C-alpha cells in the first residue's frame, strides 16, 4: 500500500517537473532575449537534476548542479556579456530558414516516440530502495572505466589549454 | 514508474535541442541548444542505469557532464575569437569555407 502511494507521488512529481522542463526548454529555443534564454536554461538543468534524484542518482544530480548550474551557466553568461553590445530584445536571433527546424524536430520526435513506446510500452522501473551507492560509482570509474576516465582527463586538459590559446589577446 | 516516462522526456528535450541548433543564428544560443541535447542523453543514461540495476549509466553520465564542460569552454573561446574578428557571432555570416 505504501509502495503504491509512493509510486503515485513519484509519478506526480515527475509530471510536474517534466512539464516545467519542457516549457522552459521551449522558451530557451524561442526566446528573443539571450539572457532570458540562459536563465530558462537554468530551469531545464535544475529540472534534470531533480529527475536524477527521482531516478535514485543522487551523486550525478549533485554533479549536475555543481557543474551545469554552477559553472557552465556562469560561462554562458560571460559569453553573452562579452559578445553583445546591448542587453535586451534582439530581432535577428533566428536564421532565415528557421521554420525548417520545426518539421525536422517533429519528425525526429515522432520517430523516437514510436520506437520508445513500441519497445518500452509497459516496462516499469524496479524499486531502487535508496540512492545508488557513490562508492560503487567510484569503483566503476577507477577500475573498468579507467581508460575513458584518463581520456577525459586529457580532453579536459586539452580543452583548458585550447581555450586559453584561442581567447588570448596577442 | 514507467521507464518510457524518462525516455520520452529525453526524446522531447533532444528534439527541442535539435530545433534550437537548426533555427538559431546566434552562436551562444546554438551552444545552449547543444547543452539541451547532452542533458537529454544523460537522462537516458540514468533511466537505463535504474532499469538494469547497475551504475554504468551513472559513470557515463558523469563523463558526459565533463565533456560538456570542456565543450562549452572551447566553444565559447571560439565564439569570443569570432566576435573579436568580426564584431558579430551570427553563424550564417561565417561562410569563408563555402568555396
SSE arrangement:
The complex is a heterodimer of chains A (170) and B (99).
Chain A: H1 2-30, H2 34-54, H3 58-83, H4 101-120, H5 134-142, H6 146-167
Helix pairs in contact in A: 1-2, 2-3
Chain B: H1 3-23, H2 27-52, H3 56-86
Helix pairs in contact in B: 1-2, 2-3
Radius of gyration of chain A: 20 Å
Task: Assign the structural class of chain B, choosing from mainly alpha, mainly beta, alpha/beta, alpha+beta, or little secondary structure.
Answer: mainly alpha
At the first level of CATH, what is the class of chain B?
Mainly Alpha
**Into which percentage range does the β-strand content of chain B fall?**
under 5%
What is the helix/strand order of chain B? HHH
Rg of chain B, Cα atoms, Å: 17 Å
Rounded mean pLDDT score of chain B: 90
Total domains of chain A:
2
Large-scale geometry of chain A: globular
Instruction: Compute the number of strand runs of chain B.
Output: 0
Number of strands of chain A: 0
Determine the most extensive contact between two protein chains. A-B, 87 and 72 residues
CATH architecture heading of the largest domain in chain A? Up-down Bundle
Amino acid at each position: 500500500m505504501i509502495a503504491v502511494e509512493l509510486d503515485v507521488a513519484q509519478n506526480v512529481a515527475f509530471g510536474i517537473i517534466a512539464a516545467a522542463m519542457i516549457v522552459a526548454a521551449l522558451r530557451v529555443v524561442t526566446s528573443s532575449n539571450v539572457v532570458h534564454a540562459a536563465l530558462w536554461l537554468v530551469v531545464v538543468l535544475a529540472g534534470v537534476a531533480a529527475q536524477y534524484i527521482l531516478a535514485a542518482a543522487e551523486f550525478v544530480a549533485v554533479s549536475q548542479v555543481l557543474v551545469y548550474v554552477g559553472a557552465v551557466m556562469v560561462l554562458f553568461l560571460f559569453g553573452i556579456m562579452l559578445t553583445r553590445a546591448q542587453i535586451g530584445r534582439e530581432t535577428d536571433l533566428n536564421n532565415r530558414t528557421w521554420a525548417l527546424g520545426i518539421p525536422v524536430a517533429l519528425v525526429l520526435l515522432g520517430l523516437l516516440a514510436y520506437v520508445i513506446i513500441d519497445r518500452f510500452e509497459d516496462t516499469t522501473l524496479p524499486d531502487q530502495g535508496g540512492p545508488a551507492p557513490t562508492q560503487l560509482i567510484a569503483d566503476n570509474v577507477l577500475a573498468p572505466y579507467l581508460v575513458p576516465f584518463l581520456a577525459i582527463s586529457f580532453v579536459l586538459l586539452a580543452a583548458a589549454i585550447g581555450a586559453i590559446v584561442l581567447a588570448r589577446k596577442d | 514508474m514507467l521507464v518510457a516516462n524518462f525516455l520520452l522526456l529525453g526524446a522531447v528535450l533532444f528534439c527541442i535541442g535539435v530545433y534550437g541548433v537548426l533555427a538559431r543564428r546566434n552562436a551562444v544560443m546554438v551552444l545552449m541548444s547543444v547543452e539541451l541535447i547532452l542533458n537529454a542523453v544523460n537522462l537516458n543514461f540514468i533511466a537505463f542505469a535504474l532499469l538494469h540495476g547497475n551504475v554504468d549509466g551513472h559513470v557515463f553520465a558523469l563523463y558526459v557532464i565533463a565533456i560538456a564542460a570542456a565543450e562549452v569552454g572551447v566553444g565559447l573561446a571560439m565564439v569570443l575569437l569570432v566576435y573579436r574578428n568580426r564584431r558579430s557571432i551570427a553563424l550564417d555570416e561565417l561562410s569563408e569555407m563555402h568555396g
